[in-house]
Amino acid sequence: MIADIVVDLQYGDCGKGKVTHHLCKNNDYTHVIRYNGGCNAGHTIYHNGRKIVTHHIPAGVFFGVKSIIGPGCVVEPNQFFKEIIELEEAGIETRNFVHIAENTHVITHDHLREDQADCAIGTTKRGNGPAYRDKYGRTGKKAIEVASLERYLIDIYKELYDNKREIKILFEGAQGFGLDIDWGDYPYVTSSHCTTASALLNGVPPQAVRNIWGVAKVYETYVGAKNFEPNDKIFSKIREVGQEYGATTGRPRQCNWMNWNLLEKAVKINGVTDLVFNKVDILEEVNEFKIIKNKEILTFDSMEHMKDFIITNLQTIKNFYFSSNKESI
Ligand code: IMP
Ligand code: MG
Questions:
Q1: 179 in ligand 1 pocket by Cβ < 6 Å?
Q2: Smallest Cα–Cα separation from 16: which of 239, 214, 168?
């Protein structure tokens, strides 16, 4: 068994959808598995020139690869069916490719209603926190108990271990290191684990892991209730040029320079081997290149010098990719 993992190193919205889509296109994966989170995620994908935002369904579906919502996720049935319809309408066949692990927990109406009332954290109001709370409180509901989901259910153990051919998995993460329940800025976090370790919780041994694709942007964005954006007009400019508005909620994302200490920590804890930096063109367009390290702002006179700094200071990374907004990596 081989597993590659895609993991976000900042606060989500770094372009995991794009990286997953690219990797699916260029590898012979047998499965793509979403390993954490629910429909709080929004993965923007350009497929055959068409923009599609997925919330639950992994990007393998675009290439006829079995796409599983893993047991580390929580699934909201209405949103799931909405997405199935959207994909079908875009001409993408879902019928034999989309599955939900039987032991995945479900986001119920009560979870949704409860999350609607949140003001403190600035959640996506998709019922994520209440669903995970009930899962760990042992009062949750599993997908296997929901009749309408029956034809999508899969026993992930049988699927991965009772299979004659070699299994090659791409794990698609949601949210990011800065939102991780243990490593993020608690309580301004999501309710799941957003690290490489989280992928393994979906039924795969550590020995299977091959490449770990860390995804970051050359600046940071965050959506939620805490104060994140410094008082400087440059960040409004970055927001407009970079179109930094939530894929799930449409909220404006707060912007800041890249936090080097957070990135370094995320690279180490996730064991990143391959590192993709997205949205290089946005900083080029605003023509400012800065990184915050130990609370001080480092200024570079070009993207090339900023790249040099990044590459020289992350010696453990095998391959770096610097990518523009819409181009593929
Ligand atoms: P929740 O995951 O909806 O409970 O929201 C908790 C925090 O995580 C809030 O600050 C959300 O804005 C943030 N969040 C959740 N999912 C995403 C995502 O996919 N991208 C960016 N931020 C997210
Ligand atoms: Mg997103």
A1: yes
A2: 214
Q: What is the mean pLDDT of residues 315-322?
A: 97
Q: Which residue intervals of the chain are DSSP H helices?
A: 16-26, 77-89, 109-116, 128-136, 156-161, 196-200, 234-241, 260-270, 280-286, 303-313
Q: What is the pLDDT of residue 326?
A: 64
- In the annotation, is 28 catalytic? no
This model's pTM is above 0.70: yes
Local structure of residue 253 (DSSP, 8 states): P
| Alpha carbon distance 171, 196 (integer Å) | 9
| Dihedral of the alpha carbons of 186, 192, 195, 197, in degrees to the nearest 10 | 130
Angle at 202 between CA 266 and CA 148, to 5 degrees: 125
The closest of 41, 53, 165, 56 to 101, measured between CA atoms, is 56
What pLDDT, on a 0 to 100 scale, did the predictor assign at position 325?
79
Alpha carbon distance 325, 329 (integer Å): 10
By DSSP bridging, strand 209-217 and strand 31-34 are unpaired
Q: What is the largest CA-CA distance in the chain?
A: 59
Strand runs labelled E in the chain: 2-8, 31-34, 43-47, 50-54, 66-69, 74-75, 98-101, 105-106, 153-154, 168-172, 209-217, 219-222, 254-259, 274-278, 289-293, 296-300, 319-322
Report the residue among 190, 194, 221 best suited for mutation to probe ligand 1: largest number of ligand atoms under 8 A from its CB. 190
Computed over every residue of the chain, the mean pLDDT equals: 96
Q: Is the CB of 13 inside a 6 Å radius of any atom of ligand 1? A: yes
For residues 139 and 211, give the distance between their C-alpha atoms in angstroms, rounded to a whole number.
Answer: 36
Q: Mean per-residue pLDDT for 121-127? A: 97
